[in-house]
Amino acid sequence: MVSGVSKTHHGNSFNNCRRILKLLARKPWKFEEFEETLLLLSANNFTGTLPVTFSSLKNLTDVRLDGNTFSGKIPDFIGNWTKLVRLDMQGSSMEGPIPSTISLLTKLTDLITDLKGSPMDFPNLQNLMEMDKLVLRNCSITDSIPDYIGEMTFLKILDLSFNRLTGQVPDTKGSLPHLEYLFLTNNLLSGTIPSWISDSNDKLLMYLTTTLQGRHLSMFASKGLWYYGVLRRIFLALEMPNVLRNCSVTNSIPDYIGDMTSLKTFCIEEDFCEIPHTAGPTH
After folding, report:
1. How many of the other CB atoms lie within 10 Å of CB of 7?
2. pTM (2 decimals)?
3. Which of 69, 110, 233, 236 has its CA 20 to 30 Å from the CA of residue 21?
4. Are 53 and 25 in contact (CB under 8 A)?
5. Residues 6 or more apart whose Cβ sits within 8 Å of residue 47
6. What are phi and psi of 39, to 5 degrees?
């Protein structure tokens, strides 16, 4: 196992980690004798580019580079890590784009990263159908969301926030049955909210701030369901702030809003709704 050094001895941890990297750079490394190999370098102060010798670590199953100040682009040789299950590069200071060789990592379940550098296309993840957690946050992606995302049937977390995504949210036709968290904040998406979001199960936590139906939409849903335009399906025990801001809602506010006794904040700014008379006050 290759891992970052325990921080029990704080004074020596950084120096020890530097020694580990120097050892890793030596040739040859016979990692083939290990069935599982972990490279856990999280939360240190490593700098520079990843050593080319890392390309020989073909039994890696878990690579965590987050919380460092590496430089340079993600190397093509990550395609050699075909046994990899988790790749975490969030806060590593590495640059995009994500190389096309990532399509070889067919066992990958967790891909977590944010990237510096120039705008990039959506990475080729079409062969990564085992994905459980896909976080491409703040990667300067200027592409549309590919349809094959809807084929990642094991996906639980999808975070594509703080990019420059355009086009419509794909209609996955209910093929993401395990999705629990969806984040599309701060993009340039257009079109309508697809039915798989409005008809999703009550476990979906969704945060979306984007452009839909030609107007700005800010929507936050938790433990309930927002349905664009008519608000026809909402759980009556919402515990978090709920916002429909500038969504071109023109019909009246339904009476059942008054039955949401746990509601603390209900924002419908810049819309054209009639206010109903409720049977009793909300809190």
Report:
1. 12
2. 0.68
3. 110
4. yes
5. 68, 69, 70, 71
6. -125, 95
Cβ(184)–Cβ(160) under 8 Å? Answer: yes
Q: Is 71 left (phi over 0), alpha (psi -120 to 50) or beta?
A: beta
Reading the block at residue 258, the tokens are 């008054």
Contact 130, 156 (CB under 8 A): no
Average pLDDT value for residue range 15-21: 57
Q: How many residues does the chain have?
A: 283
How many whole angstroms separate alpha carbon 44 and alpha carbon 68? 5
DSSP notation for 76-138: GGGGG-TT--EEE-TTS--B-PPPGGGGG-TT--EEEE--BSS-BPPP--TT-TT-SEEEETT
Residue of 116, 3, 94 whose CA lies nearest to 48? 94
Residue matched to tokens 């093929």 = 175
- Alpha carbons 65 and 88: distance in angstroms, whole number: 6
Whole-number Å distance between alpha carbons of 82 and 159: 24
Residue pLDDT, tens place only, 90-136: 999 999 999 999 999 999 999 999 999 999 999 999 999 999 999 99
User: Could you give the 3-state DSSP secondary structure of residue 156?
Assistant: coil
What's the pLDDT score for residue 71?
92
Buried b (16+ CB within 10 A) or exposed e, 231-246: beebeeebeeebbbbe
